[in-house]
Write a structure and sequence with these properties.
By secondary structure, this protein is of the alpha/beta class. 41% of the residues lie in helices and 22% in strands. Strands 2-1-4-5-6-7 form a 6-stranded antiparallel sheet, covered by helices on one side. A 6-stranded mixed sheet has the order 8-12-13-3-14-15, with helices on both faces. Strands 9-10-11 form a 3-stranded antiparallel sheet. Strand 1 and strand 2 form a beta hairpin. Helix 3 crosses helix 4, helix 5 crosses helix 6 and helix 5 packs across helix 9. The chain starts with a strand and ends in an 8-residue tail after the last strand.
């Protein structure tokens, strides 16, 4: 996939920007607070249809305006396509001239992977961030996964509501059985999707970390639910067992304590938990390895190279690590933000764009 043209209007501090990226290297530079990350975020919106920094639509709209607009012309699935997103109280998507019922309609058509300072939460924060990593990545390559996950979370919500009513002794335990079955049935599919994805991701990400660190440590990770080579029948049996084991706890906490919404991805360096024992540099390298691995899996599964969005990454890396990453991303379309582009201007091909006060400052289309 290649982005041919991208524009944003009234998005965060962006007044109006339109530019034609290079099919490979694109450096977006400028001082802090000028809109570099906002531009990266506007590209990502067409993949994730939500922000990686904000929860509410109002935060994405420039102060004093009623609506933000994003438009991208891109080449994917052997044809040129156009996606437009309008953000007001809701998000609206027009794909190839057709207004879609949901922004999610672009899922599986526009691929990008983002690494930003917030991405470190994958390593530093709790299990929910690592589950989100798996869920977003799987939704891009397996759209059915998002449907199953949505149904699963509704079942969990319904069961939690029953737990609260049960605390008031309004009905019999038999009412839990349908929701238990639903959670086990849908949950086993989610676990299978996650295990298969982790199997693809692990070798790639571990190799990337090895290159970034020059082999100083061994990066590995595993899903904390199951043993290797577990069958679908064994997944269902274990989920059933877990729900039975946690039933008393569920009644006390009024919450469903078993199922894939509670699972974790354990990240290790030399068999020690990265979150507890890794330095900030090691944690950053682990998170970056996971995201670059995610991009490689997308290419492997779909045949489309995702746009790689690297926000404020290179400034924290030495020249050797920068060189490894740039070589790894060779021939992919990459967007890198930075304050000082001089260290990145070694590339033989690409463009550099200066952003100032939410605008392109003369749109520097410098061939690198």
């Amino acid at each position: 996939m290649i982005i041919l043209n991208h524009s944003a209007k009234n998005f965060r501090n962006i007044d109006e920007i339109s530019f034609e990226p290079h099919p490979e290297m694109n450096i977006i530079y400028g001082e802090n607070g000028q809109g570099k990350t906002n531009l990266i975020e506007s590209i990502w919106m067409l993949t994730g249809f939500y922000s990686f920094r904000a929860r509410k639509n109002i935060q994405l709209i420039k102060q004093g305006e009623n609506e933000a607009e994003i438009e991208t012309v891109f080449f994917s699935q052997q044809r040129e396509q156009t996606a437009q997103m309008k953000i007001n109280k809701h998000k609206e998507l027009i794909l190839n001239g057709v207004k879609e019922e949901s922004p999610r309609a672009i899922m599986g058509k526009f691929y990008s992977v983002v690494f930003s300072p917030h991405t470190l939460s994958i390593v530093q924060d709790g299990p929910s961030e690592r589950r989100k990593l798996l869920d977003v990545a799987l939704s891009l390559i397996k759209p059915n996964y998002a449907v199953i996950m949505s149904r699963y979370l509704r079942a969990v919500d319904q069961r939690n509501s029953l737990l609260k009513k049960y605390a008031e002794k309004k009905f019999d335990l038999m009412y839990f059985e349908p929701w238990d079955r639903e959670i086990i049935e849908l949950g086993s599919k989610i676990v299978r999707y996650r295990l298969d994805y982790i199997d693809m991701l692990s070798g790639i990400s571990e190799d990337i970390y090895n290159g970034i660190s020059s082999g100083r440590e061994k990066f590995s990770f595993f899903y904390d639910f199951s043993k290797e080579n577990i069958s679908d029948e064994e997944i269902k049996a274990k989920l059933t067992e877990d729900i039975e084991k946690t039933r008393d706890s569920d009644f006390k906490r009024l919450y469903t304590n078993a199922g894939p919404h509670t699972h974790d991805l354990i990240l290790n360096l030399d068999e020690r938990d990265v979150r507890l024992f890794g330095s900030q540099g090691q944690q950053r390298s682990c998170a970056l390895s996971l995201k670059l691995g995610e991009a490689s899996v997308i290419e492997k599964i779909t045949g489309e190279c995702p746009a790689v969005l690297l926000d404020d990454v290179m400034s924290e890396l030495d020249e050797g690590r920068q060189s490894f990453i740039l070589n790894y991303l060779n021939n992919w379309q990459v967007f890198i933000t930075c304050c000082d582009p001089s260290q990145l201007l070694r590339s033989e091909k690409g463009k550099a764009f200066e952003i100032k006060n939410g605008r392109q400052n003369g749109v520097k289309l410098n061939m690198l």
